[in-house]
Amino acid sequence: MLISIFPNSSSDEGEKQHLAARITRVASKQTYYTLRWLADKDRLQRAFRAYAYFRWVDDWLDSETGTQQDKLAFVVHQQSLLDACYRGEPPAITNLEEQMLLDLVDSDPDSESGLSIYLHNMMQVMTFDVDRRGRLISQAELAEYSQALSRAVTEYMFYFFGHDQPPPQGPTRYHAVVGAHMVHMLRDMVCDIDLGYYNAPREILSSEALAPEDLHKPAVRRWIYERARLAHEYFETGRAYVSTVKSLRCRLAGFAYLARFEWMLKAIERNKYCLKADYPERKKFKVFLWIAVYVIKALLRIRWRTTEPVEIFTLSDQCEE
């Protein structure tokens, strides 16, 4: 947890300058190096702040300290800070992490900017995470959750990677990240249960009188299969959209992001839609090579052998417990 690693206040100016980069690197080395190598140099520090601030918020919400009411009060406070900043009324702050948010808005107070879209949609995601903890969510809520996250991540990418070459508008603008978020939710379904987050919609569970832990039941696995099919479709249209982006650095970042989740989807399919608590193989060197080949093929617009999900399991197939 980053909360215990980085104190909430400090008078050290050097600590303030490097805090965002340090949080980013601890949380995700891939994100850190993607930003370091590919983000616009004049926006690099802001890119670190934008990622690190919500990483801190998310870790605070997932921590074992504090009650549900405490977490709700925390995220409401963060929303009030964001609103005050865009009203031009930033409050006095002694917390370094919250100061990152104020600095971000101060750097670009345009409420219609890509940065603003990112900040507001990520705050919506954080708020929903608090609201959904400990309860089942509907398919409609799950869809809106994915849309908010996809708007946030996509606009973050376009704001910090090749911003001087704006990408085209279009109905598939957010598809790559929608597909990635679907896979992300599947990947984390098992471990999220321990945190009180249930990623399968209540319609699926209630139709078979299943508990959130019944992830290996045929009805849930069939739903996972359907999500995989839908994710493949979003990856296909999302990849095509990213190919139209003019900025090479932005395309590289986009394809690298897609590759991580397309590989993860293949791992879920290889396991016959039986989800696991962890996928340690995704950290192996051969996966890095797979991602590199994916990015090169995507840049050269070489079509993959297939983008269809693997054949659905038979109901007689059993998951390994």
Short description:
Helices cover 65% and strands 0% of the residues. The protein has helices at residues 2-5, 13-27, 29-38, 44-62, 68-86, 96-107, 114-132, 139-160, 175-187, 189-195, 202-207, 218-242, 248-270, 285-299.
Structural notes for this entry:
The chain is mainly α and 321 residues long. Helices cover 65% and strands 0% of the residues. The protein has two domains: 16-133, no CATH class; 166-303, no CATH class. It has 14 helices and no strands. The protein is globular, with a radius of gyration of 20 Å.
- Class inferred from helices and paired strands: mainly alpha
What is the residue-mean pLDDT, rounded to a whole number?
Answer: 91
Largest sheet properties? none
Strand content: under 5%
Along the chain, the helix and strand elements come as: HHHHHHHHHHHHHH
Apparent shape: globular
- The helicity comes to 55-70%
Quaternary structure annotation = single chain
Distance between the termini: 29 Å
Radius of gyration: 20 Å
State the helix count. 14
Number of domains: 2
The count of β-strands is 0
Q: Features of this protein?
A:
321 residues, mainly alpha, 14 helices, 65% helix, globular, disordered N terminus
Itemize the secondary structure elements and their pairings.
Elements: H1 2-5, H2 13-27, H3 29-38, H4 44-62, H5 68-86, H6 96-107, H7 114-132, H8 139-160, H9 175-187, H10 189-195, H11 202-207, H12 218-242, H13 248-270, H14 285-299
